[in-house]
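Homework help board

Subject: predicted structure for assignment chain

Our instructor gave us this sequence and asked us to write out the predicted structure in token form, then describe one feature. I got the tokens but I'm not sure how to describe them. Can anyone check?
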Amino acid sequence: VCMDTRNIRMINMIFSSDRDRKICKLLDFTDEKRDVTDPYYTGDFDSVFSDIKIGCQALYERLKRPK
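My token output:
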């Protein structure tokens, strides 16, 4: 689970492929499928915290579901 598209690119370079489609972004588990806000560029740590909290809650709900 990555924070942004750049992280996914880097992981794909390391592992060469993701045939099972296991590499994803944290916010892919939410209705807002986008990158987590980067505080390096914005300085807006509250938005980053909010993104991560929402993503973690959605991931948790996904993991709770039976297969």
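Reply (TA_rk): Your tokens look well-formed. For the description, you could write something like this. The two ends are 19 Å apart (CA to CA). That's the kind of observation they're looking for.
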